[in-house]
Amino acid sequence: MEAHRDLVILSCVAFYLLLCIAVGLWAMRRTQSAHDFFMAGRSLGVLVTGMAIFSTTLSGFAFVGGPGLVYTMGVSSLWIVITSSIGFALSSFLISKRLRLFAELCDTASLPDAVAARYGSETARLLTAIAILLGVLGYLATQLLAMATVLKSLLEGTVIDQISLVTCVMISLTVMVFYCVTGGILASVYTDVVQGLVMMVGGVLVFAAALTAMDGGPVEMVTVIMQDDPEAISPWGTLGMLGCLSWYFMFIVGGPGQPHIITKNMMVRRVVDLKHILPTSIAGYFFSALLWISIGLAMRALVLSGAHPELSRADTAAAVFLQVFTHPLLAGIVFAGLFAAIMSTGDAFLNIGAAALIHDIPIALRGRTPSRELMWARIATVALALAAAAFALFSHFQNARLVAVLGAFGWGTFGAALAPTVAIGFNWKRATAPAAIVAISTSLVFNLGIEIFNVTIPHGISGGALSLLISLTLFFGVSLATPQQPLDPDIEAIMDM
Description:
CATH superfamily: Sodium/glucose cotransporter
Shape: globular
Order of helices and strands: HHHHHHHHHHHHHHHHHHHH
CATH class: Mainly Alpha
Mean pLDDT: 85
Number of helices: 20
Helix content: over 70%
Low-confidence stretches: none
Structural class: mainly alpha
Number of domains: 1
CATH topology: Sodium/glucose cotransporter
Strand content: under 5%
């Protein structure tokens, strides 16, 4: 089998991609309305929802960006891995039940629907939709760049060895758009069950392979890295204490502001199922995230010890390790799961972005959605995918951004803009519409300004964390400074639960 390693890996990937396309076609037959396209008809069970939440969060961010970040910065990004699961828990305890009840009461098709109902403000709906669109571009760019990076690595050494990253992005874009346009969110969530299982089992097996990649095991691995750079293996890594703590703050407090997680909880068939979803998501996340830290450290140690040449790009760490240091069948299965997870995550983000563009913004500006909403949702999906591909290539060629850095930008954009408005606003009756409007708009200005002008904050502090801190401060301040708004009795009853 080793003699046909490339063929085995590519065959596994091709089979899984064909399977996902088949699922997309099957889901298209079950997608009869825009509500089905955006919210899966609120018909999901515990296992499907739990798997969808953690696999949507991981995907290319963790499988490609995570190992690349560890390879570059040492154990700093452990502060992302640990805190993301805490962010799941915070989101579940603070808002999952309330938002599901809001979905039932107001027949919501999106998160901005729920925000508009809570605050009685179409301006709040509009700004929430804009925040989602901007965050979606960052996250979709992450998925496309991750998929293209892995595809390019897989094709190197084959008959199309010289394929460019731009070509790989366009191939990835084409497959993702077909999958998303045909099946909507149904295609995403139902493939997430298989993908989640693949990611969990693959994570454990790859973790074991990484620990035995060097003759001396993990002790030798740590020793080699420490001799090169002791900070890389220290608790704060090379990022430093304040940088790591800013990630800690952003990924925990910003967790309840992630619309791809929030909307999954709104799709659950029964409210009572919500209490079982969190353990499923965290367990899946834990086992899948094992390869985040293990591959990054293993590849760094292997390069430093001379067992492998220096990587041309840090984001290829996972692809190179799987191709060279694991059994070809395991590599093929993990690669297949990775591609499917990236497509599923891309589908989730394209879905909430299309909802913002076709459902929420028209309602906020015109008071109604366009006729033939499902058709326009599919057109918007294609347009958003093209915009994300352009952003991915621009970010990469401008300053060779790591995949994980793009993912952190998307998380920070969502967290700073939406965590105060949703996590606090849906629990605190004193929160007002002007506070939500100021918090969202200010956070977007700061976060995008930091990104566009490439502002470097001292001590490695995350721009998303700084934007979130400013957003929280303004949300509390403006809420206390403006008159409390009367709430609809039904909405007040939900908030009392």
